[in-house]
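User: Please predict structures.

Assistant: First:
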Amino acid sequence: MDELRQIHARLHSSGFAGDKFLTSEMLRFCALSPGGDLSYASTLLLSAADTMLSSWNHVIRGYSQSDFPREATLVFLHMRRRGLRPNEFTFPFVLKACAKIMCLHLGRQVHADTLKNGVHPVVYVQNALMNLYGSCRRMDEVRRLFDGMSLRTVVSWNTVLSACADNALPEESIDIFGQMRSCGFEPDQTTYAILLSAAADLGCLSFGRWLHGQLIGSKLVLNVQLGTALVDMYAKCGAVRYASRVFERMALKNVWTWSAMILGLAQHGYASQAIELFHQMENGLVEPNYVTYLAVLCACSHAGLVNEGYRFFHEMVEEHRIDPTMAHYSAMVDVLGRKGCLHEAYHFIRSMPLEPDAVVWRTLLSACQLHVAKDVTGIGKDVKRILLELEPKRSGNYVMASNLYSEEGSWEEAAKVRRVMREEGLKKVPGESCIEVGGRICRFISGDESCINFEDICQILDGLRLNMKIPYSNLYGF
């Protein structure tokens, strides 16, 4: 940048400062080069008397890819006020910025602008629009755009697959993948990474394994993104040994890979191995991030390691300068609560620099329910009151409060809570479970008798229940 500033000064002294092409090239370097300076680019652009459209596109693109995407939208608005007409290279990055900041209102205005300027049919403009609506959780708009596309690329398919995955629609993403293959499109690395995420969300190990096999057969390079997605999928599907194998065979790993493996171990009862792997990561000079520490705190919670939890939390803040999020505070409350340190957990919440949200209080209430005998100071009652004030319409809070009263033997209080639920029209969310059978995910919802083979399932369950009641010695004749 020092050299560029000298060049800029020389252009001024030699009378070439108004050259639009030279200005555009300087802006391209400032906005898009790793050694550039977006702030300098913005100042240079806005102070220039006459500029090319490409100059604005460079700065908008630079900001849309940075940590300050809102600035891209402001530069775009400056451009429109000056009367410049955006082209098909402008809109994708403006829409990307809108998606990053989840600004649906502005995104819709930009969408209208694409129609007015005749660039709406351009495939990468439509891809950017689908990304915008997917980020803003408007899947109806995503499908409408996708279904109306006259031309699609692999990026188009990946965009709609990603929107489904990000909006908790993993089954729909698998259906769309089938359509993609039927239309003759070959999946790329991004496609596989998205689908592995969908398999992980579903807990569908057979589909995840099938994807892994397809990936091997495709001869695609197993990059860090794909390797991390495989580790995450196997870990979330409970196949921790397979996750570990993939992890060990990866030549390159980043912080996300390590974090996925640490979390997988922590969530499946391998707390000591998770912490040991975290130390290996530190010894390998990989800088942990906020997700890594969430994984480590999860390990401490499952293993009841209170002192270690405090140490890791302090290390995250003091040594790595990572600002704790609400999730970190909730994880630390879980570490204390699971161990029965209710009073300590309560004071930890009260000392938080942030205003604790309902999740933090719910974590403590769950711990109070687990350790009723240790709640001698009535922390549970205080937490119930706070939680019901924060979320008066959430039925789950009332159910937890009622269960806690029942655990204490306060049947009248439990009945009162149930009565309040009825009066407020709140209903308990029915329990749900799922199981993978023959590569299909079968869902079961409490009270729902409409599932296929319902009567046969009930007969099998009755038989299992009967067998569980028979003494072991009678069952085997001992």
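Second:
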Amino acid sequence: MIAYEELLAPVTGQVPDVLSLLGDRASLARRPAFRIEPADAPALRAYRRLRHEVFVREQGLFAGTDRDDRDDDPRTVVLVARSADGAVLGGVRLGPATDGPDIGWWQGGRLAVGRAARGTGGVGPALVRAACAHAENAGVLRFEATVQPRNEPLFAHLGWHRVREVRTAGVPHALMRWPVNRVQDLVQATKTALGPLLTTGLPGDLGGAGFVGDDGAPVPGSDLVAACDAIVPSMVERDPDWAGWCSVLVNVNDLAAMGAEPVGLLDAIGARSSSHATRVLAGLRRAAQAYGGIPLLGGHTQLDVPAALSVTALGRTSRPIPGGGGRPGHDVRLTADLGGGWRPNYPGHQWDSTSHRRTPELRAMIGSAASARPAAAKDVSMAGIAGTLGMLAEASGCGALLDVADVPRPAEANAGDWLTCFPGFAMLTADEPGRTPPPAGPATSAVCGELVPGTGVGLRWPDGDITDAVTTTVTGLGNA
């Protein structure tokens, strides 16, 4: 038996190989020949020497040096492949493609592998895959590389798409793009099943003509609008007070998108215990009070059952704003509260912009659509900003372009997270160009796109390129 002390690092500071100490030959035989990791200072120096050897001396692509301003950008990331003994076998760099704020457009480049590591070892492909994974994890929505013609088949095999021919250092290269499907994947997970599941063909269903699939449903023969939302059970279980707050937040946002004034709430709660239900109700009541004292009219509560929460809200307006009133040529505007921060335990998924706001601020934001009376409005839902824009466009019978650089966004949120998260208060509207911003209290409002003929949502970048965010309709519910 090996004593615990024998596994500790000796006084020399050399960390022992535990697998070797244990004699685990099978695991040692399966251990990868190299690992990929962010470069530390020594590895960065080794990578730059390797780059010089490959691009300057071996290929003659650059004269004197292959260094450029991207090497001096503190946002640039270098990943290296290291052998078991720590030697740098190859590396790649990646980082924002533009100066100024990071808008989610990155470029990879300077992929270099030492002579001894080329061939069947798989170092180059592994570095490319690692770069793609790192970029997507950093919230990148457009990731490209300029590739020498001889390496184009490798990138195509790994799933990259050729965009066009470009020239680097005066030599023809292929601009290739990695498909980032983050928005499309979210849409498919949250909304795509709704059309086939919910469509009945009966008149008046799903909101009635002009409001099919809308944030709320006008109640026939009245000036009431009804909205209903359920909270994910796991959230009710692990964060009951926040779940209660959000059950009011999402319903009030739905009514706000319709231009309706909230007049009452009904809740249905399932909880494992009375104390758990008390915490849910505390968050619900706190939110109802914060939004101006919305009456809690009643509901249903059941104990000793799995956690569940659903809230119905009633609002009043004589002129509901449709989610499908947009037309090609209309400006797309996002009005969002950029204050607050990521909710603890939900980084990158839930932005809490509301729980710290005072009642007048909250009231100003939820009254903004009713004041502006746009042609179409939708509050940002589980499908995120880009997916919700797809829902507005689908209901309007058209497609949409979103200008990524113009989207109001908190400095603490990267582009990918912000376009796919639940952002607290955020409202998408469509209207004729030239309309003034709505009065929305502390929220930020900006035109950041347009409705266009077709379907889906494209992301438009500062260089004029358009990448796919949503390639089809979102819900399948069709034109409202």
